Amino acid sequence: MSAQTKYAAMSRRAAMTAAAMAAMATLAGCNGGGTPTAAEGDMALGAAEGAKVTVIEYASVTCPHCATWQEQTWPAFKAAYVDTNKVRYVFRELPTPPANVAVAGFMIARCAGEDKYFDVIHGIMASQGEWRAGVNPRDTLFRIGNGAGLNNEQIDACITDPANLKASEERSEAAMKAGVNSTPAFFVNGVEVVTPGGEGASMADLSRAIEAELAKG
Predict the structure, then answer these.
(1) pTM of the predicted model, to two decimals?
(2) Is the pLDDT of residue 25 over 90?
(3) Which domains does the chain show, CATH number per domain?
(4) What is the CA radius of gyration of the chain?
(5) Helix 137-147 and helix 114-126, axial crossing angle in degrees, nearest 10
(6) CA-CA distance, 72 to 95, in Å (whole number)?
(7) Alpha-carbon span 168 to 139, nearest angstrom
(8) What is the pLDDT of residues 125-146, one digit of tens each?
(9) What is the number of other CB atoms lying within 10 angstroms of the CB of residue 164?
(10) How many beta carbons lie within 10 A of that of residue 209, not counting itself?
């Protein structure tokens, strides 16, 4: 089976998985989606595990609201809380349509290595406009993967590896079973922070929740 055929098969399976996840979301209730307990596959920045404050974001590389939050809020949030090690920031993957692109993007980020994971995630989010302009998302993923040090053969192997796809499905299932059904979703020490009408939680609302937790004895 050629790499292109494998990629197409992975795309179909990823789309089916996303449909199943969407169906689960309609049944799931809020059940500790932001619990600060470490989960399999967590990717984190900032303070070490066990920090006084853990901020968890559920997001997708294909979610336009996630991309907007990344562009508008992440720089200030990172400077205030991540770079200063005031919080442990955890990113959890929850694919959104087009699911095959999201799943492939997540896998490429992981194959690039922990030290480049967030660079790849942020790079894909920032490139969403290319798809709206007619660029094939696969070309974008490969370009970003190449920039992270992966050659095309390595990327093909990464995104067609059944073990990688299975792990991605398990992370999605865990998010849905926890009651998370939209992206981006933010939790500060297990409590969801929502900014009505916003593109994800605002810096002001996140700061309010974080500072309240930091102030506790």
Answers:
(1) 0.85
(2) no
(3) 3-210 (3.40.30.10)
(4) 17
(5) 140
(6) 21
(7) 21
(8) 999 999 989 999 999 999 999 9
(9) 20
(10) 20
